[in-house]
DNA sequence: CAATTATATTAAGCATTCTTAACTATTAAG
DNA sequence: CTTAATAGTTAAGAATGCTTAATATAATTG
């Protein structure tokens, strides 16, 4: 069973390599497309969480609900999100992504893919299959740990 | 060989699940420990790139060298980095992480690990071994694609 | 050596994003 | 029904981080 830390170590090393590239790409994408990292982050949160309230977003991002409200103002002005009244409780606003907001998520994902393709080139067919299998497992298990509703991001990269 | 997009898709899905958690953790860690995301990002860059100049950092982070210099000012004031003259070219400053700066990187990594441990619990022994193998492969290949010198982050998580 | 180029710093100004506090509207509780 | 609690917005001010421009120092070029 090797050392008990083997899995954590392997994950950490992978994350370390991956994050460095991914963060740079995200950062670059945000710059080039004129969105801030906060905005990307907020859109990502909403996309994962699904319909949610202003305070939810604030808590998720670790800021006050005032800050969340202001951020949503800008996003709404850019037509990336919509705020509608919750029919069951008219105090709360339901935040949803618009078509455009969803597209931004798609694009930011796509911005990362050039590196993925390069990476794939370096794999043998066996390594490739092994990786696919492992990644699927990790994804499934990872989703089980998530407490949020997961909207289906799966399709984002295939139908574009 | 299934669809040509299978690998990219599997990677994207995993990244999607992982990033959501990881970003939240990073964000939370940064907040709690009083550092900004930019600072964490800069420290990460320096850690990966190894000794580098001010302009290098600016280019790596996509900002002007003035911005990089100002950021380094703060980091130096917090004793997270040191600036020394390059003996071969006294115009350039060599940026290095201090003990404290390295520790911050360690801690930010550690902050992510609780999720990793939960994830590991959900895996069968076979899945666990498969994942380790795949992650190692991806890490190795990923490093080959990197253009930066990689300092050894491997040891960070074991000797702590 | 003189002029140019490269590196880093500093200063001033601007845009973004955060916080707290005040305010409105709605719901829940007594 | 009255009071208290909850959700969201708005406003004012502070903090952060960015840019451009000016400056100092060192290296390179002719």
Q: In words, what does this structure look like?
A:
The structure is a homodimer of 160-residue chains. Chain A is mainly alpha-helical and 160 residues long. In chain A, 65% of the residues lie in helices and 9% in strands. The first copy, chain A, is built from seven helices and two strands. Chain A has helices at 6-33, 37-49, 54-61, 65-77, 99-110, 113-121, 125-145; strands at residues 81-86, 89-97. In chain A, helix 2 packs across helix 5 and helix 3 (54-61) crosses helix 4. The N and C termini of chain A lie far apart (43 Å). Residues 148-160 of chain A have low confidence and may be disordered. The structure holds a DNA duplex (30 and 30 nucleotides).
Series of secondary-structure elements of chain A, N-terminal to C-terminal:
HHHHEEHHH
Report the radius of gyration of chain A as a whole number of Å.
18 Å
Would you count the extended β strands of chain A for me?
Answer: 2
Report the total helices of chain A: 7
Largest sheet of chain A: 2 strands, antiparallel
Q: Which runs of chain A of at least 5 residues are low in confidence (pLDDT < 50)?
A: 148-160
Helix vs. strand class of chain A: mainly alpha
Largest protein interface?
A-B, 69 and 69 residues
**Euclidean distance between termini CA atoms of chain A:** 43 Å
Strand order of the largest sheet of chain A: 1-2
Helix content of chain A: 55-70%
Shape of chain A: elongated
Give the oligomeric state of the chains in this entry, treating copies of one chain as homo and distinct chains as hetero. Answer: homodimer
Mean pLDDT of chain A: 83
| β-sheet strand percentage of chain A | 5-15%
């Amino acid at each position: 069973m090797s050392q008990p830390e083997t899995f954590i170590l392997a994950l950490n090393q992978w994350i370390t390599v991956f994050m460095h590239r991914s963060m740079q790409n995200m950062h670059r994408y945000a710059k080039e497309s004129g969105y801030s990292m906060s905005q990307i982050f907020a859109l990502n949160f909403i996309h994962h969480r699904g319909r949610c309230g202003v305070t939810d977003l604030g808590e998720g991002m670790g800021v006050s609900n005032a800050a969340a409200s202001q951020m949503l103002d800008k996003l709404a002005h850019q037509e990336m999100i919509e705020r509608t009244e919750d029919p069951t409780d008219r105090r709360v606003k339901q935040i949803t992504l618009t078509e455009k907001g969803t597209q931004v998520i798609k694009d930011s994902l796509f911005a990362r893919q050039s590196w993925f393709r390069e990476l794939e080139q370096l794999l043998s067919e066996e390594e490739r299959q092994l990786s696919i299998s492992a990644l699927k497992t990790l994804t499934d298990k990872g989703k089980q740990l998530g407490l949020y509703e997961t909207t289906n991001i799966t399709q984002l990269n295939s139908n574009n």
